[in-house]
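Typical record was shown:
=====
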Amino acid sequence: MKQFYNEIKLQQQDLAYSELIELFNKYQDTKTQAIRDKIFNANVRLVFSISKKYPSNKEDVEQFGFIGLLNAIENFNPTYNIRFSTYATTCITNEINNGIIKVSKLIPIPKHAYKKVMSGEITEVTTIDLEDIELENLAIQQADNGIDKDLFWFLLKEICSEDEIDLLIKRYCNESNFTLNQVAESISQTKQYTNGKIKRIINRLKKNEFFKNKINESM
C-alpha cells in the first residue's frame, strides 16, 4: 500500500491553469481515462496537503481524499466561475470527514475522545478510551483484537452496496441507535421489508470466510 501511495506522489505533474481547463473541456466530451489521470496527477498534491491536517490514520485519510478528488473531477464544470483547486478542496475535505465519521461509527469512539483526536490533542485512541463498545447483534470485535480494518472495509464494499452498508451502520452501531422502525422509516419502507433486507445482507456476509466467525450466530 505504501508503494502505491509513493508511486502516486512520483506521478504528480504541474500544469498551467489554462492547460488544466483545456483538459477538462476534452474530458467532458470524451470521458477518457487517460485525460482524467492527467487531471488527477496534476492535482493530487491537494490530497496530500489536506490530509496532513488530520491526526487519523494517514493512509485511510489519503484514500478518502483520493475519492474526493475523483468526485471533484467528475462533477467540475469548466464554465463555473470558480477555480478547480477551490472546488476540489471542498470535495476532498467533505469526503475525508464523511469517511472518518463512517469508520468511527463502525468502531464507535466516545465523543470526548473523538474531539481530542480531531483536535490533535491525542493521536490515537487506546482500548481504555473505547467505552461500552458493542455493535449489538453484529459481533465485530475491537480492532485491537485482531480485525484488519483495511480488509474489513474492502470486503464489505465488495459484498455490499453503499445503501446496504448504510443500513448496517444505522441498525447495529451504537453511535446511531436506530431501532428497526427508525431504519425502515429512513428508507421509506415497512418494518418487515427492512428486517428481511437486513437479514439477507447478513446471510450474504456470513458466506464469506472473513465475516462468518465475526457475526453472531443469533442474527
